[in-house]
């Protein structure tokens, strides 16, 4: 999911990337990917 969000960011689809990163954090809250996703999400806002 983190890779998908990164691709969405590259495609300038930040709305979809935000949604993907939020879904990642909800589905796998304790994972390293979720932590990286939360950091990425904070930079998108």
Could you give a quick summary of the protein structure above?
Helices cover 80% and strands 0% of the residues.
Task: Tell me what you see in this structure.
This protein is mostly helical and 45 residues long. The protein has one domain (2-44). 80% of the residues lie in helices and 0% in strands. The chain has three helices and no strands. The chain has helices spanning 2-10, 14-27, 32-44. Helix 2 (14-27) runs antiparallel to helix 3. The longest helix is centred in the middle third of the chain and has 14 residues, at 14-27. The protein is globular, with a radius of gyration of 9 Å. The relative contact order is 0.23. The mean pLDDT is 96.
Describe the secondary-structure layout:
Blueprint: H1 2-10, H2 14-27, H3 32-44
Shape: globular
Query: Which stretches are poorly predicted, pLDDT < 50 over at least 5 residues?
Result: none
Helix content: over 70%
N-to-C SSE string, H for helix and E for strand: HHH
**How many β-strand runs?**
0
Amount of beta strand: under 5%
Can you give the mean pLDDT? 96
Biggest sheet statistics: none
Q: What is the CA-atom radius of gyration, in angstroms?
A: 9 Å
Task: Quickly count the domains.
Answer: 1
Q: Given the helix and strand composition, which structural class is it?
A: mainly alpha
Give the termini separation. Answer: 18 Å
């Amino acid at each position: 999911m983190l890779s998908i969000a990164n691709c969405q960011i590259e495609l300038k689809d930040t709305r979809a990337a935000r949604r993907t990163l939020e879904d990642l954090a909800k589905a796998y809250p304790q994972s390293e990917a979720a932590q990286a996703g939360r950091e990425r999400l904070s930079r998108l806002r």
